[in-house]
Amino acid sequence: MQNWPVYVINMDANDARLAQVAEELGKAGVEWMRLPAVNGRALAPEDLAQVYDEKANQRFARHNLVAPEIGCYLSHIKAAEWLIESGAEAAVVLEDDLCVTGDLKATLDALQLDFSSQNAPWDLVKLFSFKPVRLRQTRELDHGFTIGKPDRVPSTTLGYVLTLEGAQKILAKVPPIFRPVDEDHKHFWEFDLRVAMIAPQPIAIGAQDSADGTVGDSRRQMAHRDGLARRLWRFASYRINYRLNLSLARLRGL
User: Do 120 and 165 contact (CB within 8 A), yes or no?
Assistant: First the structure.
């Protein structure tokens, strides 16, 4: 049944990851195409400045963005652009460090049937969360799956389904960017995004080795930019503002 495009975001240097995810998706019976990731480390300072709003970052984000985070966000923006150019109703966006732990093909088939029958009651469906997530307003789908609104949108972009309308909503706002892409998904009310999650989740984190280092490596190198007191204040302010705005969004039925 699968006719939504499946994009696997992969850096040019990460051949081992590409081979591993190709094996995982091949066993799952899922057709896919490689989406070349944007290498944030290779972007010139003037190019970073064009897409990164540092003033907004200082006001609304919990930490300074590092170049790999900016490149990651730009890669997910590229996925939204590819979806629009494809003419498809939705696309599956995957990162290359996943492993398939469930029936991924059945998951996508169930979501595709739901999309058709419910007239797109969602813009984005998360396929993975690091922590257990409580779902609200749940509905049963084909193949034994459940879909609902997550109490808190998971902090990951390992895998999700994005509709055409969702892509348009995202691209109307970014770039410029000032938070990581997964944190912007958590701030769904700013994009008017209808975010859902499916259970059981069909994927999990796989191999983390990277040919050019991880986001965490770069973030640790930048930790000195703000002093400890400033970092603690930013983190506390972020959490308070997020929880307040999330509560207000839920009261509005979002």
Answer: yes
> pTM of this prediction?
0.91
SS (H, E, C) 152-215: CCCCCCCEEEEEHHHHHHHHCCCCCECCCHHHHHHCHHHCCCCEEEEECCCEEECCCCCCCCCH
Percent of the chain's residues with pLDDT above 90: 78
- Residues 185, 21, 203, 181: what is their CA dihedral angle, to the nearest 10 degrees? -10
Determine the pLDDT at residue 211: 52
CA distances 166 to 113, 129, 228, 249, Å, are 18, 20, 37, 18
Mean pLDDT of the chain: 91
Q: For residues 225 and 64, is the Cβ–Cβ distance under 8 A?
A: yes
